[in-house]
Known about the structure:
Belongs to the eIF-2B gamma/epsilon subunits family. By secondary structure, the protein is α/β, with parallel strands linked by helices.
Amino acid sequence: MQAFIFCGKGSQLQPFSLAEVGNGATGLPKALLPIGNRPMIEYVLDWCDQADFKEINVVASTHDIDLISEALQSFMSLREQQFDLLSKALNASVHAHHLQRPKPIKFVSSKASTTGECLQKELLERITGDFALLPCDFVTDIPPQILIDQYRNRDSENIALTFYYKNNLENADKKQTTKQAFTVYSDNEGSDSQPVLLDVYPTEDVKKSKYLQIRTHLLWKYPNATVSTKLVNSFICFCAYELCQLLSDKKTEDDEKNDGDDDEAPAAKPNATAIKPSYFKNENELTKDRISCNKSLGKIFRDLARRSWQHSKSRETVGMFILPDVGTFIRANNLNAYTEANRFLLRIKAQTLATNAQTTTASASAIGADAIIGPDCTILERSNIKLSAVDAGCVIGNRCHIAGSILHANVTIEDEVTLENVIVGPNAVIGKKSKLTNCYVEGSFVVEARTVLKGETLTRMSLESEEESNDDEAISSDSGEDGDYPESYYDEDDDAFGDDDFFQR
C-alpha cells in the first residue's frame, strides 16, 4: 500500500504557520510546526514506518515542498543510521531476515488549487495499487495495524474506508473549537455488514435552515441511518486501487465506444467499466459516474458516499470505522488542538528528565519532568517550567513562571515573566514583569515590559500600500489564478462541506 501525506497551509494555525506566502509571514509551513520540539510531520512518518507502507509520499505546494524536504533530511538520515545499527546487531541472529530497510520517502510538488484536483491530476498516475491518504498533523498512540486490519476485513462492496474519531479535547478557547458536522451513517447493528458513510451536512447550513433535511431516497435504502455530531473526520482514508478508475478524467476504450454510439442509441449503454475488482466476491461492473474533483478530498468522499443511495442501481459504498477509545487521536489543525497535542506528548515523556547536556540551567531553577527543553537554551535562577515545550536557543530570565506553554526557537523571556497557556513564535521577546494568559504571540513580536493580557493574539502590523494589500487579497482568494494558492489549499477543515445544490434537483 502506498501512503500520500498532504501538507496543508495551516490557515487555522496562524500566526505561527506560513499560510500567507509573500505577506511578511514569520511562521513555518504547517508540517514543520513543532510538537514536543519535533516537526509534526515526523510523528506521521513514524506512524507510516510502523504501518510498513511500501512507499511514502509527502505532497505539498511548490512554495513549501523545498522547505519541508530540507527540514526532514536529518530525520531521514537518522532512520538510515538506526537501520544500520540494528542490522549490525542482528547480523548473526536468526531474526535478521525480519529486519527491513526504511521505505523511501518521496516529495511531490503540487501546483493544484485543491486536494481533489491534486489527487486526480497529479497523483493518480503514481498509484500502482491500494493507497492511503493521510493528513500531516495527527498524533496518536493507536497502532496503524488496527486501521490496516479493519481495511483488509472491510465488506466486499466497499471501495474505500474512512476513519472517524470522537473529539474529547477540552475546548478552553471557544474560538478554536474543532468544526463539527452532522455525519449520517448506517451502523448496521444486528448484521454482518460494516458501518457505511452516507452523507455529511455542515453545521452552519443546518443552523441557517434550522432543521436537518435528510434525503428520502437515503432513508428508503438505509432506514436505520444514524446522525451524529460528536464524530470528527480524521481525513485518513484507505482506498482500493479501483477508485482510481472512478476519479480518472481520462477516457477508457469503453467510454470512447459509448461516446461514438450516442447518435445510434443515446441511452443504450451505461457508462460502465467492465472489471473485476480484487475485493469483490462476485463479478461486478464498476459504474464510472462523473465525479468532479475540483474540490477538497472531504467533498469528494462525501460524493462517493452518496453514490451508495442516490442511484437506482446499486453502487459501491464507502466504509466507516470509528477509532476506539483505547487510544488517543489528535489532529493539530487548530491552535487549541495544537496545544493539546503538545501536552499529550509531554505527559508521555513525563518520566524523562528535561535537562539537556547543552542547556545552561541555574541550580535554583525548577524544571518539571513533564517539560521538554531544547538544546542551547539558557535558564536563569528561580525560574519554574511545567508542562511546557521550550525549543532550541531560548533564553529564560530570572524568576519566570511558565506553565502549559509552547516556546518556539530563539525566544527571549526576560525577568519575572509569567506565561500560562501561551504559544510564542520564534525570535519573539517578552518584556520584564509581563503576564500573559491564554495568548498567542507571533514570531519576532516584541511584548513591552509590564504587559498584562488575557486571551489575546499579538501579531506584527505591516504598513503597505493599498495596491499591495489588494494583491495580497487576490493571492489568498479561492480563485487560484496565476499559479497562486488559496488560503485553504490543503486544509480540509477550512473548506466547509457544500451541498452543491443537491436539493434543487
